[in-house]
Amino acid sequence: MSTPRLSRRQLLRLAGAGAAGSLIAACGGAPQGAEPTPASEATAVAQPTVNATPVGPTATAIPLPQGETIEGFTSLMANPSEQIKLVYWWGNNYEPALQFTNEIIARFSNAYPNVIVEPVAGQNCDAFITAAAAGTPPDLFHTWDCVERMGAWARRNVIIPLDDYIARSKFPLDDYAPGIMDTCRMDGKIWGMVDTAGVFLLWTRPQIFADIGKPVDAVPQNTDEMWQWARELTRTDASGGIERLGLRMPNWLWEYFAWIAVFGGEIWDVNAGEPTPDHPGVLAALNDLVDQVRLYGAENLQRWSSGIGAGEGAQNPWLAGNAVMQVGGDWTGQAIFDFFPDWKFGEQYNAVAPPPAPEGKRAGESAIAWWSWPWVIPAGTRNPDWSWELLRFYLSTEFQVNVHAKFKEMLVRKSMMNDERLGHPWIKAGRDIVNGQRKLTTMMPMNPVAAEYSNLLGEAIDGVIRLNRTPEEAMAQVKTETMQKLSELKG
Amino acid sequence: MSTTMSESGIAVRQRARRMVLLQRTLGQMALYVLVAAVSVLFLFPWLWLISTSLKSPEQIIAVPPQLLPNPVMWINYYYGVTFVDFPRYMLNTLIIATSVMLARIVSCTLVAYALSIVDWPGKPILFALVLATMMLPGQVTLIPLFIIYSRLGWVNTFLPLTLPALFGDAFFIFLMRQFFVTIPRDLVDAARMDGASHFDIYLRVVMPLARPALATLVAFTFIWTYNDFMGPLIYLKDRDLWTLSLGMQGFTQRYGAGGTALGAMMAAATLYTLPMIVLFLAAQKTFIRGIVTTGLK
Amino acid sequence: MATSVEVSPILRRPRWSKRAQREFIAGLLFSAPWLIGLVVFIGYPMITTLYYSFTRYEIPLEPRWIGWKNYVDLFTGDRFFPKVLYNSAFLTFIGIPAQLVFALLCALLLNLKIRGQVIWRTIYVLPTLMPPVALALLWRWILNPELGLVNNALKAIGITGPLWFASPLWSKPSIIIMQMWAVGAMTIIYLAALQGVPQELYEAAEIDGASKTQQFWSITLPLISPVTLFQLITGVIWSLQFFTEAYIIGGAGTSPGAPEGSLLFYGLYLYVQAFQYLNMGYAAAMAWILFAITALVTWLLLRVSRRWTSYDLV
């Protein structure tokens, strides 16, 4: 089930406030080759092979009730003889999403009448860990804005590894675009499942390109060119204050990750299990950003970013034309549909993959970053088999495609992402990326210090962008401190 | 000649009286102006909130900011009302808030009485204990408390949010205590000499005098319960049990990028606070009545 | 002559006179509700968190005893801790007095004998009715450096306003301004206190020729001093734990407490340690350090207050 993607800031800020002294929370790829036809691919993928050993207390798979077909799903469990209750939590609280969830649950209950699913919306990660600590976790949890904490949860066995289930139900892991599952893989095991991936794209206002004499379908070839266009598109007033910014600077951690990816940077070495904030690609990306900051003036940029540039939702400066280009998740498109439904793709707005950094500047292959909020099955629940069945149900073609089409999101399942039902205009950019034109990278693979590492990175980058520190020195400190945290874990 | 003198005397006195009257009126007006000026400070951001709630997205980001929306987007309020199950969430919130209010009126005053009127050696220790319980941040007591309630089977009920009020709340105990200590000793002693028990004194002497403080307790309890988010989030899992603060969260998490338009969100915030304003206006009457009865009898 | 033995009134009575016994029992009875709740709802969590503070407790694994290590690490090995202490101290020792003074002024205004009390009072208290999320968002908007009310008003008189919440220097003052706007709770409490001051005292002073200012300093202030003390202590306690709005606004950047950690308050850092890093033991140690600091400050306030508070009894 897809969830709304707000900028993480806004998720955190808006997801609720506590009373005095109480807590707040918020928590929330295809290989080269021919495009498979959606229908056949779906059936081919969904059917377990003939020798599959069904999961569950009974051995025989049952057909779903007459007339009920779930595309891409085959039942592997029989309706239990006694009633089972599954408590399903997720972080979203948005009414239309709720309706969709209720629909899915209704159909699940239709298929398995003795399995009662109790959905609870709006459950953030703090509520989750509280319940887990008390020994009363939900049966299934769709995380939301706390993917960094998954590593810590796995280490403490708050959630269970899913490899067994995946193997037994022959779940097609390679249906995911390469690298996607890194977000859920740690110590050689898989701890969660991905359904939606927020891919970072470059969003532009093509009609404004006319200001610098470019046609509406112009696409910068590399970051240098992009910055040059940005500079030409920037309008300042007499005293140097910025009125319109050519390219909106990143303003939360994962947007910085998007730039680091473009420069081929990697912040985590999966093989060694160690942080690499001093990776040459990371430093190259940060130095490039610093160069731009120097050109505009740090003070001017901060003033714009916290002023006009601070709007969210309908007040997003890019939507208002105060920024001509921005790097944002593919959820940016949803805002357009919501607030400016008469905009035309290719005219008022456009979305392309972020351009790569030029050869000499980047370190390694230029990649595209993405963000996710995986599903997890908590430990200590009574019916994990059924949790998995419900999860598989959600991950079936029928629901994945329909929900992502309705909420205009990106799928990274090779068998589904080319489905025609996904009709929103910017899906093409996403498809191109996943279909192999660009490498998709999980910037922060699952690791036990991801939360600390993220905060340290954020703090360091904040200092770098304010021109208070050099990237080299800041990242060196991040590395030292994160390594120390890692060693504390082992000790 | 004497008549002329007294006539002018009267005139002088009349003029003097008029001068005093004028001064007093001017003084009054000055006070009004002062009070009004400060109230503008408090009111203006609210007006801004309401104004934003009626604006379209373009207008919201317009520079320089305009006060009057044009066009007026009443539809933002439509979103605010229809988006969540206002009536049910409101009812739940009211149930919880009222229970807590009543419980606290009883429990906090009883303990405050022990901390003020009663003359016993346990007072300093008790006072220190009461204060001490306020000093530990909620983040760390959250999980142990949740474990307790979970073992008691109270999760997914109103109980964790209401029952503890029966045992008092440090902030309000402290508040009532500070009011009780301003009650003149003579009153208490007089009642004692009349043979009143402590409970009589509590009920007939102290409590009636504490009306303004009680009104304060009621008002704040209501406001803070109304706005409490984390408590309901952790303990109320059934949507039917949800409070307004939980329900409003759904409104702010609009599906898609960037959340709802700021306008609609401001509309929701305005609607959300309306019941509190109404209640506060109602509580004011008690407040004013309380003022009249305060003082030495 | 018959000798008459007079019992001197100074002669000591038995230690627990009937009256003292009765008072003691009354004291216990009246405080019974709280004492019962203390054990279950307060005592247990407090004791367990104290225990946790001496352990390495990564929920939900078993806590592992490590003695004073958490406390030592906080003071010697945590480079965020000094900043956290500074931020919270700034907010508390500048913000609370500012709020108190402003609240008292407003209460004095509301206490005037003018018409429309109900309206004025509601307006003055309106800000308190706003839920913390809305409050934070509203003020982030009002203090928006380019689009907000304040900077545009300043621009009209030729001043370039600061970046407010986005400036490391101005972010805390911005929070204080926001809090002062929402000072209605304190105002009401002060108002209730002001109205408890007997009118006769003022009339007597008037007859004696005291000016309004003299009346204020010698009648009003002393008689509301218990309430001032209350506001001070509760304000300090609450401010040291401040979290909600800082969390909403402080996330305007890339890490908690941005910009540049200027909004990293104690409560926020505690939350990060407890719920993001799952270092419950460390967070518990932080909580108890805060407890100690708060207790110390409160004790100091109580001692100092003996000079300037006046009680009728106690």
Descriptors:
heterotrimer, A: 491 residues, alpha/beta, D-Maltodextrin-Binding Protein, domain 2, 7-stranded mixed sheet, 4-stranded mixed sheet, 15 strands, disordered N terminus, B: 297 residues, mainly alpha, MetI-like fold, 14 helices, disordered C terminus
Q: TL;DR?
A:
The complex is a heterotrimer of chains A (491), B (297) and C (314). Chain B is mostly helical and 297 residues long. Chain B has helices spanning 2-53, 57-60, 75-83, 86-114, 123-134, 138-152, 159-162, 170-180, 185-193, 198-209, 211-227, 230-235, 244-252, 262-293.
Structure overview:
- The complex is a heterotrimer of chains A (491), B (297) and C (314).
- In chain A, helix 8 packs across helix 9 and helix 16 packs antiparallel against helix 17.
- Chain A folds into 2 domains: 182 residues, Periplasmic binding protein-like II (D-Maltodextrin-Binding Protein, domain 2, 3-Layer(aba) Sandwich); 217 residues, Periplasmic binding protein-like II (D-Maltodextrin-Binding Protein, domain 2), CATH 3.40.190.10.
- With 491 residues, chain A is an alpha/beta fold.
- Chain A is globular.
- Chain A contains 17 helices and 15 strands.
- In chain A, strands 6, 7, 8, 11, 12, 13 and 15 form a 7-stranded mixed beta sheet that branches. In chain A, strands 2-1-3-14 form a 4-stranded mixed beta sheet, with helices on one face.
- With 297 residues, chain B is mainly α.
- Chain B has 2 domains: 52 residues; 220 residues, Orthogonal Bundle (MetI-like fold).
- Helix content of chain B is 74%, strand content 0%.
- Chain B is built from 14 helices and no strands.
- The longest helix of chain B has 52 residues.
- Chain C folds into 2 domains: 54 residues, no CATH class; 230 residues, MetI-like (MetI-like fold), CATH 1.10.3720.10.
- Chain C contains 14 helices and 2 strands.
- In chain C, strands 1-2 form a two-stranded antiparallel sheet.
- The chains are: A alpha/beta (491), B mainly alpha (297), C mainly alpha (314).
- At the B-C interface, helix 1, helix 4, helix 5, helix 6 and helix 8 of B face helix 1, helix 3, helix 4, helix 5 and helix 6 of C.
